[in-house]
C-alpha cells in the first residue's frame, strides 16, 4: 500500500495534509509514503475513522511505516542527529489509546491518548502517557519554513520617446604636412 505525496500541493503554511483511515493502519501490511522531498514542508497525516471524522477510541498500528524519498532512497529506523528530513507528523486527534505494534516513522501527536510503543519508533511522541517497550529514536519534527508572501510587483516605468539621431556633418579633410627633403 502506497501513499504518494509527490503530486500533492501544500497549503499556504507549506503543509501537506492527508487523511488516513485508522483501519488502514490496523492492517498487518506495510504502508509506504513515497515521493517525499527531503527539504519539504510538514506532511501531516490525520488519522480518521471510516466516516472521515477525527479518530476517537483505540488505534492499534499494525502496519510498518516506510518512507521513500524523491531521489529513491529509503529511510530505515535508526538513531540520528540529522533531523532535516523529519517532516512526518501523525495526528491521532481525539484518540484515547494508541498501540504501535510495528516499526513506525514520524512524530506522534495524540494528546489525549495513552500510547504504548511495542516496536521501534523514530520521532517525537506526545500523549497523555507514553510507555515504550522497544527502541525509540529521536527524530525531531521539523516544521519547515513558512513561505513568505511575495512583494507586490513593480510596474516598469514607461520609456521616453526615442530620439531621432541628427544627420552627420560632412567629413573634414586634413592635409598632412609633408616634410621637405
From TrEMBL:
Lineage top rank: taxon: Bacteria
Pfam families for the chain: pAdhesive_15
Compositionally biased spans, kind Polar residues: 172-181
Coiled coil: none
InterPro entries for the chain: Choice_anch_A (IPR026588)
Region feature (Disordered): 140-181
Residues in Choice-of-anchor A domain copies: 6-137
Matching NCBIfam families: choice_anch_A
Protein name from the UniProt record: Choice-of-anchor A family protein
Organism: Levilactobacillus brevis (Lactobacillus brevis)
Amino acid at each position: 500500500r502506497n501513499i504518494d505525496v509527490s503530486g500533492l500541493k501544500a497549503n499556504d503554511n507549506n503543509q501537506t495534509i492527508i487523511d488516513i483511515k485508522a483501519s488502514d493502519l490496523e492492517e498487518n501490511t506495510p504502508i509506504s509514503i513515497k515521493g517525499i522531498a527531503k527539504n519539504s514542508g510538514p506532511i501531516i497525516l490525520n488519522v480518521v475513522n471510516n466516516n472521515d471524522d477525527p479518530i476517537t477510541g483505540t488505534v492499534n498500528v499494525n502496519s510498518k511505516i516506510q518512507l521513500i524519498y524523491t531521489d529513491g532512497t529509503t529511510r530505515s529506523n535508526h538513531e540520528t542527529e540529522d533531523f532535516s528530513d523529519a517532516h512526518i507528523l501523525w495526528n491521532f486527534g481525539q484518540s484515547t489509546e494508541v498501540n504501535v505494534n510495528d516499526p513506525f516513522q514520524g512524530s506522534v501527536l495524540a494528546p489525549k491518548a495513552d500510547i504504548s510503543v511495542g516496536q521501534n519508533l523514530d520521532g517525537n511522541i506526545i500523549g497523555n502517557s507514553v510507555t515504550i517497550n522497544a527502541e525509540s529514536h529521536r527524530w525531531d519534527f521539523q516544521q519547515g519554513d513558512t513561505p513568505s508572501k511575495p512583494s507586490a510587483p513593480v510596474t516598469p516605468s514607461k520609456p521616453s520617446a526615442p530620439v531621432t539621431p541628427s544627420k552627420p556633418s560632412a567629413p573634414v579633410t586634413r592635409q598632412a604636412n609633408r616634410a621637405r627633403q
